[in-house]
Design brief:
about 130 residues
């Protein structure tokens, strides 16, 4: 079986709430995570909520990284979706755990676009080995 990409949906708990309030810092850390996993940044968009909280996305050539923060709960919801097999979304997640100072996290890893019986692919998929 082949898949077009990998998607990690992550929850970060007990983060530094001061970081989660700082839109510029959150954007910087998201860009760093994209670079550390080897992704190509296309553009970014971030929004600050009143009284606090940040939502943002880094569009990468390989897909995206997104974040929503709730500083009042020291919580961040993050997702990293990468296409192909050259970028490892776990590297971006690890970078963000460190940058946001998350003391706990949980994740769901998904394969996206699992292709059964696909003979022709227009870009390099992830090879999934059966267990």
């Amino acid at each position: 079986m082949k898949a077009l990409g990998r998607h990690i949906i992550a929850e970060f708990y007990d983060c530094d709430s001061n970081i989660l309030k700082d839109t510029q810092l959150v954007e910087t850390y998201m860009k760093r995570a994209a670079i550390e996993c080897g992704a190509t940044i296309v553009e970014s968009a971030f929004h600050t909520f009143n009284p606090y909280g940040v939502s943002g996305v880094i569009v990468i050539a390989e897909s995206h990284l997104a974040i929503h923060t709730w500083p009042e709960y020291s919580y961040a919801a993050v997702d990293v979706f990468t296409c192909g097999d050259e970028i490892d979304p776990q590297d971006a997640i690890n970078s963000l755990i460190e940058s946001l100072k998350a003391k706990d996290s949980k994740m769901v890893n998904m394969l996206r676009g699992e292709l059964k019986n696909q003979d022709v692919l227009h870009h390099k998929p992830i090879e999934v080995k059966s267990v």
